[in-house]
Amino acid sequence: MTPPFIWRRQALKFAALALCASPFAGLAQTSSAPPAPIRLALIESMSGPFANTGEAVFRNLLWAVERVNARGGVKLPGGARPLQLDRYDSKGQNEEALSALRAAMDDGARIVLQGNSSATAAALVDAIDKNNERDPARRVIFLNYAAVDPVLTNERCSFWHFRFDAHADMRVAALMDVVKDDAALKRAYLIGQDYSFGQSVLREVRRQLGVQRTDVEIVGDELHPMGKVKDFAPYATKILASGAQAVFTGNWGNDLTLLVKAAREAGFNGSFYTFYGNALGAPAAIGDAGIGRVVAVADWLPNVQTAQSEAFYRAFRARFPKPADDYVHMRMQLLVESLAQAVERAGSVDAVAVARALEQADVSLYGQRGRMRAADHQFQQQLVVGVMDRQGKPGVQFDVEGSGYGFRVIKTIAPERAELPTSCKMKRPS
C-alpha cells in the first residue's frame, strides 16, 4: 500500500504539471495564487496503542493554527502567510518517526512538532542536528510540546530544539510541594514506563523523596514495557500487597488508564501522584476511588479560577464539543503563538533567524504567560497541581471528558519557583 504522504506528493506534482501546461499558467501564478503556507509537520502516533494521544495533540495544534490564520496569518515583509499543519504517523516507533521526518522535509516542511515520547524526541534531535550541519539549505527547527526527559534541555540540548512543556524534574518538584504536606504518607510505590522518560521520573522521585520526605519508605520500584502491557492486574496486586499508600507514576496514554483501572479493581485505596492523570480516560477509569486521591501536575487545568481561563476552556469546547475530545493544553497554544511571534520578528522563515527569535519568545494568551529561556531552550511558565473531585464541588466547575470528575487546583507554582538550573552547553551556528 502506498503511504499517504507519497500520494500527497504525487497529487501536488500532478497539480503543478497541469498548471504549467495551461496557456494561462503565468497569469494564474501572478494574479491569483494564494501566498505559500508555512508548513508545520506534526510527527506523532496516529495509530497503535497511543493513537488517542496523537489525535489529542492534533486537535490542540489545529485550533492554535486556526487562531493565527483567522487573524490573517503570519505577517512578513512580502505579505502575510498562513500556517499549514500536516500530520505524519510515527506509529509509536522511532524508525517510523525518522522516516516521517524525511517525508516532511521532502514535502517542504521546515518546522517539526513532536512530543509524545522522549525517546522519539531524542532520535529526532539527533537526526535534525546532523541534517542541519550537512544540508544548511534544508535546516529544520524542532518544537517539542511534551517530551519531558530532562536531558533534552541539559546535556543533550540543541540549538534547533525548543521545549514548551516543563521537564520531568520540574513536574516532580511541583508534585513534591503537595507531598511534603501529606503527613499521613509513609509508604510509596514507584512504577513507570521502561524508557528514558519513565526512568528519569522514577529517578527524580527517589531523589526528591530522599531530600524532602526521609520518613517515606519506598516499598516498590519497577518499570514495565511501554505500550505493551494489556493487563496491569499483576502490577496492581503487587501494589496492594506492598502496603503502599501512594503510587508515583509518569505513565501516560493507555499505560496510565489501564494501570489506574487495575488498581481500582484490585481494591487499592491510596493516592496516585501523576503527570497525566487528568485526562485520556484515567478519571473515568478510576471513578469515585480517585476523589481526593488522584493528583496531577500540568501547566494549566480547566478549573484554574480566572475569567480568562474559563473563556479559554469554553472556546476550546465550542470548537471540539465531543466529550471524548476534551483534552486541551495551554502550552500547545503558546507554542504556536511563540512560533508566529518569532517568524514575524525574524522577518523571514530562515531557520537560523527564526530560532534566534524563538530564543526571545515571550507570549501571553488568556492570562497565561510563558517565556523561552535562551540558555537551554526550556520554556518557563507557571505550573498547577490539581486533585480529582466530583464535578460541582467547590473549585470543580468543569469535569473531564464527560466523566463527572474534574480537578480542583490545590497548588500554583509561579514560573520563578518552577524554574530549575540547566547543565546545557549550547552550540550555536556562527
Structural key phrases:
alpha/beta; Rossmann fold; 2 domains; about 40% helix
Question: TL;DR?
Answer:
This protein has 14 helices and 15 strands.
Describe the structure.
By secondary structure, the chain is α/β, with parallel strands linked by helices. The protein folds into two domains: 4-29 and 37-167 and 329-380, Rossmann fold (3-Layer(aba) Sandwich), CATH 3.40.50; 169-303 and 381-418, Response regulator (Rossmann fold), CATH 3.40.50.2300. 40% of the residues lie in helices and 20% in strands. It has helices at residues 4-21, 25-31, 51-70, 94-106, 118-134, 168-179, 196-212, 233-242, 254-266, 282-286, 307-319, 330-346, 351-358, 415-418; strands spanning 38-44, 83-89, 111-114, 141-144, 161-163, 187-193, 217-224, 246-249, 271-274, 294-298, 362-365, 368-373, 378-381, 383-390, 405-413. The protein has a seven-stranded mixed beta sheet, with helices on both faces. A five-stranded parallel beta sheet has the order 2-1-3-4-5, with helices on both faces. A three-stranded antiparallel beta sheet has the order 11-12-13. The longest helix is centred in the N-terminal third of the chain and has 20 residues, at 51-70. It is globular, with a radius of gyration of 22 Å. The protein starts with a helix and ends in a 12-residue tail after the last helix. The relative contact order is 0.12. Residues 1-31 have low confidence and may be disordered.
Low-confidence stretches: 1-31
CATH topology term of the largest domain: Rossmann fold
Number of domains: 2
Strand order of the largest sheet: 7-6-8-9-10-14-15
How would a crystallographer describe the biggest sheet? 7 strands, mixed
Mean model confidence by pLDDT: 92
- The string of secondary-structure elements, in order, is HHEHEHEHEEHEHEHEHEHEHHHEEEEEH
Task: Name the overall outline.
Answer: globular
Taking the alpha carbons of the first and last residues, their distance comes to 44 Å
The radius of gyration over CA amounts to 22 Å
Beta-strand residue percentage = 15-25%
CATH class of the largest domain: Alpha Beta
H/I helix tally: 14
State the CATH architecture of the largest domain.
Answer: 3-Layer(aba) Sandwich
- Count of DSSP E strands? 15
CATH H-level name of the largest domain... which superfamily?
Response regulator
What proportion of the residues is helical, as a percent range?
A: 40-55%
Classify the secondary structure makeup into a structural class. Answer: alpha/beta
